[in-house]
Design a protein that fits this description.
The chain is mainly alpha-helical. It is built from 22 helices and six strands. It has helices spanning 2-10, 15-34, 50-65, 102-114, 122-141, 145-157, 159-166, 172-188, 194-210, 215-228, 235-260, 280-289, 296-308, 312-327, 334-355, 362-367, 373-377, 379-399, 405-424, 429-447, 462-465, 481-491, and strands spanning 87-89, 95-97, 455-458, 470-473, 494-498, 501-504.
């Protein structure tokens, strides 16, 4: 061990080479894990999250058939109940996306160039873009290459970040990465660099197109940083920025008008109920500010369980790091002070915004830690806290002159993270990989002799049978299934999925 550290000392590692080495290793590892287990089956890819099922389906539809709405005539008689989770039904009964459209449109655009088989690999690449942007952002903000390098490596090893990079068709890692890229571009932006103005507009627009629900806090931090850089303003630069943002956002607005009937309606809205709503402004304000109400004690409880306990190492070290940072407040750079206050604001905002949400599926919460939805919506908080973790590592290394302390901490941190995402979390990525393969085998077996026009009634197993067959998911059912069942039986064969078998009704 002593000889190992001695040899290590004689090798020159530049920060960029270190980060590049880790990036390549992570990319290889992620591609291996994300690639489905090879099975000699005719059915297509399956996913564990209903959101991933929906996103893959719509990316494929948009890139190959150029549509984001599929007619479903049966819905005229079925009270719009024929659809899987994370789908919606518009006013004509057609199946449409049940989410924001930005990620679908972006990945469909990329699939036109790289093919449908590449769809599942886009997120790991975007994720690395976010990590590198984080490095350059912190290098400028904290004027410290050490803090930038430690933080970006910690981000690569962070369990929540890794976990949702493997869930490659969820929007949270791409959204967070585009936020980091846009902030890095913004912080380096100069008056006459029109390319940077355009890039900032484009990447901030992509972030907002993927997660418009984050508009309030994201717009505020962009505004504050832009004001702090007012000396760099130019009219032409602002025009180029607006054009870049419009290029990223316009496709989503276009399709929202086309499939939902309004620029201001998304797939998350309960479309039929909008007919009786008379004040869309109030509805939008509520969605932007307090969509789940104001429940501070619930927010604190959720924050404890799905932020602190999801990554206790990050939480504990960041608290010490903030203490060290405040202790040397007068020595800090203006940009790092701005980072600190904006981070506090984002924490408070998102703590209330998502923490006040009472997730209805308690079974999912009991079975998941990293896989709980709170973790993915708070992903940006895990990222923003890492520089303060790095401050602790750097301070201990310098104060006690421990040459290899940072290396030891990174090894321990990575070991904990890998243990969490590979083994300890109930819904770890290896378990998910096996479950998805089992679902493909089950689907091939059960659907082999099932009529193509069959409709399957199921709770939570819609992700197994769709899109090969039409489904009615009973979890969160909005209508009266018993009322429409006699009508449906006249239109198509109806099957119930129970205990791993399909029973004809």
């Amino acid at each position: 061990m002593i000889n190992f550290f001695h040899r290590l000392k004689t090798i020159h590692f530049s920060p960029l080479k270190i980060l590049l080495s880790f990036s390549v290793l992570f990319l290889i590892f992620q591609f291996i894990v994300i690639t489905p287990i090879k099975l000699e089956l005719e059915n297509g890819p399956k996913f564990d999250w209903p959101d991933e099922v929906a996103n893959y389906f719509w990316v494929r539809e948009l890139s190959t058939n150029h549509r984001l709405a599929i007619p479903e005539p049966v819905n005229s008689f079925a009270d719009n109940l024929v659809h899987p989770r994370s789908f919606n039904v518009n006013f004509s009964g057609s199946l449409v996306p049940g989410s924001f459209l930005g990620l679908i449109i972006l990945y469909a655009f990329l699939a036109k160039f790289f093919g449908l088989g590449a769809i599942i690999y886009f997120t790991p690449l975007v994720m690395l873009g976010g990590v590198w942007a984080f490095y350059f952002l912190l290098k400028k903000v904290f004027s410290s290459e050490k803090i930038a390098l430690f933080s970006s490596i910690l981000l690569l090893f962070s369990a929540p970040w890794q976990y949702y990079s493997f869930e490659s068709l969820l929007p949270n890692v791409p959204f967070t990465s585009f936020v980091l890229i846009s902030l890095a571009v913004l912080i380096y932006l100069k008056k006459n660099q029109l390319c940077l103005w355009g890039a900032f507009g484009l990447f901030s627009g992509l972030a907002l197109a993927i997660r418009p629900a984050e508009f309030v806090w994201l717009a505020l931090i962009y505004f504050v940083i832009l004001v702090s850089k007012k000396k760099e303003f130019s009219l032409l630069g602002v025009v180029v920025m607006i054009l870049g943002a419009w290029l990223a956002i316009f496709p989503s607005l276009f399709f929202q008008e086309l499939i939902y009937g309004s620029f201001l309606i998304s797939g998350y809205d309960k479309l039929p109920e909008l007919v009786i709503q008379t004040n869309p402004v109030i509805r939008l304000l509520k969605q932007a500010l307090i969509p789940f109400g104001f429940h501070p004690w619930l927010a604190v409880s959720n924050f404890w369980h799905y932020f602190i306990l999801s990554s206790p190492f990050t939480a504990l070290f960041s608290v010490f790091g903030i203490f060290l940072y405040l202790k040397k407040w007068r020595e800090q750079t203006k940009s790092s002070k701005l980072y600190f206050w904006l981070t506090i604001f984002i924490f408070v905002w998102l703590l209330n915004y998502y923490g006040s949400w009472q997730f209805e599926d308690l079974r999912t919460l009991r079975l998941n830690q990293l896989g709980a939805s709170y973790v993915r919506y708070w992903l940006i908080l895990f990222v923003l806290s890492l520089p303060f973790v790095s401050l602790v590592i750097d301070e201990v290394s310098r104060r006690w002159k421990l040459k290899y302390f940072s290396l030891v901490v990174l090894i321990i941190f990575s070991a904990i993270s890998f243990q969490q995402i590979l083994f300890s979390d109930p819904n770890n990525i290896l378990a998910v990989r096996r479950k998805v393969s089992a679902n493909r085998i089950m689907a091939a077996k059960l659907l082999k002799d099932l009529p193509d026009q069959a409709i399957i009634i199921t709770s939570r197993s819609d992700k197994i049978f769709f899109p090969e067959r039409r489904v009615i998911e009973t979890y969160g059912l909005r209508g009266d299934l018993n009322k429409i069942l006699p009508i449906l039986k006249k239109l198509a064969p109806i099957y119930q999925h129970e205990n791993g078998a399909l029973i004809e009704l």
